[in-house]
Amino acid sequence: MYIVGIGGTLSPSSSSERALHGALDAARRLGAWTEAFTGERMRTLPMYDPVSLERAPAARELVDALRIADGVIISSAAYHGSLSGLLKNTLDYVEDLAREERAYLSDRPIGLISVASGWQGAVHNLAGLRAITHSLRGWPTPYGCVVNTAPTGLPGDPIDQHASDLALVAEQVVTAVGQGCPPARRLVRGSHG
């Protein structure tokens, strides 16, 4: 199974990128093959242009990976309660899959991680990521991980403190892929013949 991770920022110490790698590491331990599109790879994507059919090599790599992905994990920093422009531009390229048989992110489990310096922005961002996932026809996993990086006075790194939560996101994506499709989709198909 092939899980694509998308997230991070241009900061060399990006918490959302470290969280993404934590989830992808957990997915690999569960037997998945993973690939990450993080800050540096996202930086090379031109602004998405829906009119032009020409795509830069980095954009073709992203779209090709998403085309064959069995599942996706998205990790977003919260900027003013929403995702960063860098991540939004990256997700805009999913539009290139609109007319395919498996349009957008159809029938794929999508694990979501939101990282912010404060609970309010992180939780609001997670809600936005869920709405985007629905718009792209993906299936957000039941558990979405929220990481608050604001100083708490507790010892240790906030990403490390959420390692089990990040692993749960990965586990839910891998489990849904292993079942052939997200459980909710199987229920709908089963109840309607």
From TrEMBL:
Pfam families: FMN_red. One of its GO terms (molecular function) is oxidoreductase activity. The lineage of its organism: Bacteria, Bacillati, Actinomycetota, Actinomycetes, Propionibacteriales. Residues 1-146 form the NADPH-dependent FMN reductase-like domain. Keywords: Oxidoreductase. It is an enzyme of class 1 (oxidoreductase). It comes from the Bacteria. Its EC number is 1.-.-.-. InterPro entries: Flavoprotein-like_sf, FMN_Rdtase-like_dom. This is NADPH-dependent FMN reductase. It comes from Nocardioides ginsengisoli. The keyword Nucleotide-binding does not apply.
